[in-house]
């Protein structure tokens, strides 16, 4: 079937779910619609199977149904994390607690309380015991020249008492990719960070650099050229655009992308394209998180030479940080295997709360759960809903590359 004709059939038969996916025809020309059939789908790699498929344009998730609405906010039930979350369609901000000044008293659905502890689960496979590579972003200050980019951006007004931010990051490759480092990539420079998840199902050319690692290197290079570590959402998006243009020319494959900055005004700003996640933990509980953006299950928005998605399509998050906040950002190798509530419990129960130790504890636990045949993981829950045969019982981890950046605010 002609791809364009198929696209029009989908719009006619599933208009609400198609628009809900974030892929709006008004924002994408027909030649970009044609590219959707070529973008990569993440393979269902687990203890059960290891195979790669390619996205088609014929299967889409249904739009989530709001439990209640109040002005720009809407409440939704997050079944994977067993709790209600609140999403602002204008700002992209999401909260676990009702936003101040909004009335959601009409909600009658009650989520199931998450378990307070994470059970110890023995892996179903034996993997290389070599530890992950850990880098400390706090020891890597930003320096060098100011880029002429974005002179029109409104500058960030620093607060009188800026918070101190410590950061650290971990990359843990898929067990089968350890020899060459896997497809996840990160950078962390003080309060600026990026997470890039290479799409395993994307077509790649031998002898070329991976798209995800090129994005990370180019973004870090561009960040290093600037004197200020406080970046607006527009600046983060434009820096990502610069990196994307280089990767389109020099790299192969595809990648999701998330970039964040803690400004001198103590605000965390995040732009995210795909299914990498930033989670803010406050007082031992999930406080807010960035929003995933998918074409459909296991096919996230992604950057790549043949992808229709661009940095301007990213979702955004802005949140005022306070002393004691812990910010966890990572690829889906983390968040497919551990719920937000369990990550918060893990952070709260870990005695040594240095960013380097928290990043290692979180990645180790995600790897352990990914190898489990019986863990009720967020990925398994969603896979069962989407009728993935290997997860028909709704349990089991998903083995993947893992990368994580932890920021501690004091």
Automatic annotation (TrEMBL):
GO molecular function: metal ion binding; protein serine/threonine phosphatase activity
PROSITE patterns (UniProt xref): PPM_2, WW_DOMAIN_2
Alphabetical UniProt keywords: Hydrolase, Magnesium, Manganese, Metal-binding, Protein phosphatase, Signal
Entries under CDD domains matching the protein: WW
Residue ranges occupied by any WW domain in the UniProt entry: 73-101
First and last residue of the signal peptide: 1-20
Pfam families in the cross-refs: WW
Catalysis performed (reactions): O-phospho-L-seryl-[protein] + H2O = L-seryl-[protein] + phosphate; O-phospho-L-threonyl-[protein] + H2O = L-threonyl-[protein] + phosphate
Cofactor: Mg(2+); Mn(2+)
UniProt record similarity statement: Belongs to the PP2C family.
Name of the protein in its database record: Protein phosphatase
């Amino acid at each position: 079937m002609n791809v364009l004709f198929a696209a029009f059939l989908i719009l006619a038969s599933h208009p609400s779910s198609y628009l809900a996916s974030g892929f709006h025809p008004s924002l994408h020309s027909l030649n970009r619609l044609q590219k959707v059939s070529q973008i990569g789908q993440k393979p269902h790699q687990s203890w059960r199977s290891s195979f790669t498929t390619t996205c088609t344009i014929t299967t889409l998730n249904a739009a989530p149904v709001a439990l209640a609405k109040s002005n720009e906010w809407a409440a939704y039930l997050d079944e994977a994390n067993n709790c209600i979350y609140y999403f602002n369609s204008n700002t992209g901000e999401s909260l676990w607690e009702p936003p101040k000044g909004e009335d959601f008293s009409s909600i009658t659905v009650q989520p199931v309380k998450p378990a307070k502890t994470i059970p110890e689960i023995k892996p179903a496979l034996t993997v290389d015991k070599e530890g992950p590579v850990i880098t400390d972003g706090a020891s890597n200050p930003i320096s060098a020249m100011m880029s002429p980019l974005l002179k029109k951006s409104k500058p960030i007004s620093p607060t009188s008492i800026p918070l101190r931010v410590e950061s650290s990051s971990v990359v843990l490759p898929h067990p089968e990719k350890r020899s060459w480092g896997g497809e996840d990539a990160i950078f962390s420079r003080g309060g600026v960070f990026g997470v890039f998840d290479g799409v395993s199902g994307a077509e790649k050319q031998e002898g070329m650099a991976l798209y995800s690692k090129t994005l990370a290197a180019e973004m870090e290079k561009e960040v290093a050229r600037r004197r200020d570590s406080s970046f607006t959402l527009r600046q983060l998006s434009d820096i990502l655009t610069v990196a994307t243009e280089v990767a389109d020319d020099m790299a192969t494959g595809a990648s999701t992308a998330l970039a964040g900055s803690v400004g001198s005004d103590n605000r965390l700003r995040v732009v995210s394209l795909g299914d990498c996640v930033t989670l803010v933990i406050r007082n031992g509980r999930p406080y807010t998180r960035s929003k995933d953006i998918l074409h459909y299950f296991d096919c996230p928005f992604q950057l790549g030479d043949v992808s229709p998605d661009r940095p301007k399509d990213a979702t955004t998050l802005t949140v005022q940080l306070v002393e004691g906040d812990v910010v966890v950002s990572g690829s889906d190798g983390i968040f497919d295997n551990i719920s937000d509530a369990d990550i918060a419990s893990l952070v709260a129960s870990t005695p040594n709360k240095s960013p380097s130790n928290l990043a290692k504890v979180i990645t180790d636990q995600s790897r352990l759960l990914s190898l489990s045949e019986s863990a009720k993981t967020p990925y398994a829950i969603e896979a069962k809903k989407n009728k993935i045969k290997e997860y028909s019982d709704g349990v089991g981890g998903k083995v993947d590359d893992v990368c994580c950046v932890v920021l501690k605010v004091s």
